[in-house]
Write a structure and sequence with these properties.
There is one protein chain. A two-stranded antiparallel sheet has the order 1-2. The relative contact order is 0.04. With 230 residues, it is mainly alpha-helical. The chain has 12 helices and 2 strands, in the order ααααααααααββαα. Helix content is 68%, strand content 4%.
């Protein structure tokens, strides 16, 4: 059957497809099985020739169906949450180095964007952040800003005066005008609490060398110091 009018032809095709949907699908599957390699070659050639056209079509379709896609993704995530988490963990373990390099590149190229997002997120979720911080500090008192006694605080201020608030790391010599100076316990507070107030077992380091010392030792406190660095 032939139609001069395109709209009539489209309507006829749609009606025919609705009536014979199952038969058409069966024929398509049979054809695809018999001509797998030919179909692949044709698809790859078509994609190479029409890259820009396909990109535009995809972008237009995404803009039109954005809300629908978002809803479907949420439903899919709720139904397959455990499987997705397992897959993400597995992928992360297999591609640790690749992900690390990608994250570094992204941070370097999008520093302003990340800062703006962080500010917006903190403004919107200030109460949630405060509650989470309180809960985390309860479980991990050393990581969430250690509780220092008055005697220890006094000893730390004296140590800073003795060292003229300069980093005592070999060949460093940075002052508090250049960077923040930390008072480091030579014998860790957690392991030797009885020596935490002794001035002779304290030393001043800049935040970078303080971080390096704890990182080399494998302390979780290093991650707490690094937050104020970057």
């Amino acid at each position: 059957m032939t139609y001069k009018d395109k709209d009539k032809k489209l309507e006829y095709d749609k009606q025919y497809y609705r009536k014979n949907k199952e038969i058409i699908l069966q024929k398509q599957t049979k054809y695809n099985k018999l001509h797998k390699e030919q179909r692949r070659e044709y698809k790859s050639k078509y994609r190479l020739k029409n890259k820009e056209k396909l990109k535009k079509e995809k972008a237009d379709w995404y803009i039109k169906n954005r809300e629908r896609i978002r809803k479907l993704r949420l439903i899919h995530y709720k139904n397959n949450r455990e499987n997705k988490i397992d897959y993400q963990k597995k992928y992360y373990q297999e591609n640790k180095e690749k992900k690390r390099l990608y994250d570094l590149e992204y941070r370097q190229n999008n520093q302003k964007k990340i800062k703006e997002r962080g500010i917006i997120y903190r403004q919107k979720n200030s109460e949630i952040i405060r509650i989470k911080k309180y809960e985390y500090n309860k479980k991990n008192p050393r990581c969430g800003g250690p509780k220092i006694s008055f005697e220890e605080m006094l000893a730390m201020t004296i140590r800073k005066r003795i060292d003229n608030t300069t980093c005592q790391w070999y060949n460093c010599g940075k002052t508090n005008y250049e960077t923040s100076i930390h008072v480091h316990h030579i014998f860790p507070r957690k392991e030797y609490p009885q020596l935490s107030t002794k001035i002779e077992y304290m030393i001043c380091y800049c935040k970078w060398h303080h971080y390096l010392w704890h990182k080399a030792r494998g302390d979780r406190y290093a991650s707490f110091i690094s937050r104020s660095m970057w």
